[in-house]
Amino acid sequence: MDLSTIEKAIDTKVYHIHSDMKVPYHEHAAQDEVFYCIKGEGIGIVEGKEVELTVGSVLVAPAGSMHTLKTDGELYVTALLIPVNRIICHCKQVTYGDIRMAMVNGARTLEEIKEITGAGTGCGNCIDDIKKILGLACGCKMITMEAVADAVKDGANTIDKVGKVTGACTDCGKCKSLVQSVINDER
Ligand code: FES
Ligand code: FES
Fold it and tell me: Of 4, 23, 28, 34, which is the most buried if we count CB atoms within 10 A?
């Protein structure tokens, strides 16, 4: 991957969080998120562990970790979302991207993932992680595959319509090909 491709893949955001805001506890399955506190103060929570944020503090939420931010006053942070392709199944060296690609190509069950990727066919320690990936359509908005499938069954037959009903695909957009695959299931 060349430098400009890497640069384009990194998403930069600035968030202003205040005391009456509730940031949902969420994860980015394929992105590490690095927060830098620009102004104000608050608390970052990663996998249940609280870290105080003041100006200049840095907090890292690794891909797949549940995290949120909160404050009693005001908190300004910048966030870098850096794509990573973590290994889910160490026995078979199968990555998160391999499993998502299998889902885009129609795999919906653990057995199908095992058959297509080989993940989960060794010691079995990765089975829970595979099930978690299989259950989630959109990591940004924490929208399940079930919610997307229900929206499609109820007539949402485009990515935009699924987004309006569920919220999926309305942030980074990386789940669009998977949502399209669920729409195709229904045709
Ligand atoms: S870690 Fe996946 S089968 Fe062992
Ligand atoms: S994963 Fe980012 S919008 Fe769905």
Answer: 28
